[in-house]
Amino acid sequence: MRAIGVHGGKGSADALFIEEIPIPEPKCGDALVKIKAFGLNRMDLLQREGKYPVPPQAPSTMGVEFSGVIEKVGPADGNGFHVGDEVFGLAYGGAYAEYIAVSTNMLIHKPSEMTWIEAAGIPETWITACQALYLIGGHIPGKSVLWHAGASSVSIAGIQLALNSGASAVYVTAGSQEKLDFCVRQLGATAGYNYRDRSWASDILDATNGRGVDVVIDFVGATHFQGNLNVAAKDAHIVQLGQMSGSVLPANIDISGILMKRLRIEGSTLRSRDEQYQKKLRDLLVNQALPKFKNGAFKVYVEKVFPFEEIAEAHKLLESNRTKGKIVCTIN
């Protein structure tokens, strides 16, 4: 089968190429899926550069989310999945290819109302958002939420989830007015703040009459750490999902808010989690979101679709930080 490899094992987007590798054989509890489309994620860029700790069970081929048709079911019970089923799902790796062998615990039946492209953009993105908002953030109706990187795919999902879950307010930060307008006007966020030219923490404190927000979800890291402490309400949860600005804090960080506000700060990853943990999140996604994809209440926002053969250009677009939503590749 055709798959995407990296010349030399790591490199720039231009090091990506199409190679021929064996079709994987599904093990007990697995299904072999012929892939129609796969989604890109920021971890793919890091993995391509040799900077991502790939789980030991992951194949060398990149890609963790996909949609397609089951061509074969491994030994033992198919867990409700059969040859010919249209599915989408999450994998430890291997989705940048024509076929993938993946546990049926991580597959979801694709609703007929959903396209292959939309389905491929859901698993990693929406499962991460569910994990951050509910499992770690502990969000309940009436609580307020702040999503950093508001136009990222995870935050786009998270904004929709929070609004649907009865959030009292949903705030976002982003690096351009275009992205803020998208979050507020199209997604329905309460308000957005540009972290490049404003004190977003001060603005949010003003907007909340000094109370702050109950759940803060951050992908940025070092540069936002003090602001997160400042803007957090009493007993707030701060969920750290990334460190795009770095992991070493600047000087003079004041951590007194952690104590005085009784804050809980928790970091998390998804790909390194065991299968049963991921299955629990898959089930959460199916229960919380799948019916709303069917009736159109939830939407997958896709920035651009590339053919499989233009994977290098797809990576370059993701690297540009100009996107609002998913980048998806299709395989003919």
From TrEMBL:
It holds the Pfam family ADH_zinc_N. Keywords: NADP, Oxidoreductase. GO terms for molecular function: NADPH binding; oxidoreductase activity, acting on NAD(P)H. The keyword NADP applies. Residues 11-329 form the Enoyl reductase (ER) domain. SMART domains: PKS_ER. This is Quinone oxidoreductase.
